[in-house]
Amino acid sequence: MSIRGLKKKQPKTFKVRIITVDAEMEFSCEMKWKGKDLFDLVCRALGLRETWFFGLQYTIKGMCTWLKMDKKVLDQEIPKEDPISFHFLAKFYPEKVEEELLQEITQHLFFLQVKKQILDEEIYCSPEATVLLASYAVQAKYGDYDPNFHEPGFLAHDELLPKRVLRQYQLTAEMWEEKITAWYAEHRGIARDEAEMNYLKIAQDLEMYGVNYFPIAQNKNHTDLLLGVDAKGIHIYSINNRFSPNKSFEWSSIRNISCSEKELTIKPLDKKAEVFKFFSSQLKVNKLIFQLCIGNHDLFMRRRKVDSIEIQQMKAQAREEKARKKMENQRLAREKQLREEAERAKEELERRLFQLEDEARQANEALLRSQEAAELLAEKAQIAEEEAKLLAQNAAEAEQERQRLELTALKSKEEKRLMEQKMREAELIAVKLVKESDRRAKEAEHLKQDLHEAREAERKAKQKLLDITRLNYPHMAKYPQYSPSDCRDANFDKGSVKLDLKDIDLKRLSFEIERERLDYLEKSRKFEDRLKELKSEIHALKLEEKQAGLYC
Description:
By secondary structure, the chain is of the alpha+beta class. It folds into four domains: 13-90, Ubiquitin-like (UB roll) (Roll), CATH 3.10.20.90; 104-204, Acyl-CoA Binding Protein (Up-down Bundle); 216-305, Roll (PH-domain like); 312-471. Helix content is 61%, strand content 13%. It has eleven helices and twelve strands. The strands form two sheets. The protein has a seven-stranded antiparallel beta sheet with strand order 9-8-7-6-12-11-10, with helices on one face. Strands 2-1-5-3-4 form a five-stranded mixed beta sheet, sandwiched between helices. Strand 10 (254-260) and strand 11 form a beta hairpin. Helix 5 crosses helix 7 (173-184). The longest helix has 164 residues, at 309-472. Residues 311-464, 517-544 form a coiled coil.
C-alpha cells in the first residue's frame, strides 16, 4: 500500500480549545464528531463523572449559546476560527450543593465558577457576606493561617472582593486584608474541599445564585420583563429588580412548556389556572430558554426519583472518599499536632539548653568574679592589717597628745583663772577709774565754775576800782604832777599787786587742773592698752581650749 493511500484513510480533524475557569486545553476532533463526543472527551480529560451539570458554551454574534450534544459540532453555528474556542461551564445548578455534588472536581469547578460570578457582580452579594466568602476562598488556596508565613500583604495580588464593594467603602487594601484575615484565622483545620463546600453553601442562599436571566415581553401589554430560570422553577422579574420575582412557577406546578418561534407558553398543572405566554426578541433566545427549562426540569424530576445504580455507586464512592479523606485529615491533623508538639518540645529544649548555657556562663562569670573578689579581699585584708597597725600607732600618739593636751588644758585653766582674775581686777580698776574720772570731771567742773566766778569777781572789782578812781580823783588826769597822788598811786599799786597775786593763783590753779587732766588721759590710755592685751591673751587661751577639745 502506498503512502498516499495511507494518508487518504486517515480521518480529517479540526482543533478546539476548551477553556475552563482556571485552565485551557486543546484537542484534535474528528470531522464527524457530535457535540457529545467532544463533551465526553473533555469530561474524561478532567476526570469528571457528574456530567449532567455541565456544557460547552460558545459566543456567536454577541449571544452565548450551548453546544448541542446530538448534532455534529461542525454542523452547528459555531465561530469560524482555528482552534474553535469553547467554555466548559456549569449549565445547571444543584438545589443543595452538599447533597448533590459528589466529586471533588465537580465541587471545585462549581466553586471557581460561582466565585467568578460573584467577583464579576453577576451574582449580588452583601459586603459582609463577600468578606466571609473571601476568607473561605483564602483558606481553600493557602491552607491554615500561619502568622509567621502569611505576613501582611500576602493577599495583595488576589482578587477576593467585587469592585462594587471596594467602591462602596472608603477602606484601604490593608484594611480589607485585615478584615479577611480575621475570618481566615478562624477557619484553622478546614481542608480545601471543605472550605470550597462552605463557600458554595453560603453562595446558594443568594437571590441571584444559579439564575439565568433573559429579557422578555408579556403578551398584549408588551411590558419589558426579565425571565429567570433556575433549579427550582421559572421566575418573572421587573426589569430593574433581579432579587424579588413578581411571579414564580415551581417545576412541580408546571404541566407543560412549549416554544414556537418567538412565543414561549407555560401551562400550569392546574388546568383551570391561566396559561402564561411570553415573547422574546429572537427565536434563538426562545430556544435557549426552552433548553434550559427542559434541562432544569429533568434534573428536578431526577432528584425526586430513586437514584440510578451509577449515582448510588458514585455516592458510595463519595462517602468512602469522604471517610478516607476524613481519616487522612485526622491522621494529618494528628501528625501536624504531634509535629507541632515536637517542635514546641524542641523549642522548649533549645530554650532550656540556652538557659542552662546562659546559667553556666553566668556561673563561670560569678566564679571568676568570686576569685577576683577573694584576691581583692586578701589584698584589702593586708591593707586593713597595715592600717590597723598604723591606727594603733596613731592611737598611741593620740593618747600621748591627749595627755599633753590635758596637761596643757590644766595649765590653760590655771592661766585662764589668773587671766579672769586679772580681768576682774582690770574691770574693778576700770570702774574705779571711771568713778575717779567722774569725780575729777566734777571737780574740774567746780574749779572751772570757781575760776569763772573769780574772774567775774575780778572783773567787777576792777570795774569798781576804776569807778572809784574816777569819782575821787577826777583831776588826776589833768594834773598828773600833783603830789598827793603819789601816795594814792602807792596805794593803788598795792591794790594792783593784790590783784596780780590773785591772778597768779588762778593761773597756777588752771595749770594744775590741766596737768591732772593730761595725767588722767595718759593713765586711761595705758589702762585701755592693758585691757586690749588681756583680751588678746584670753582669746588665745580660748582657741587653745577649742583645739584641745577637738584632739580629745
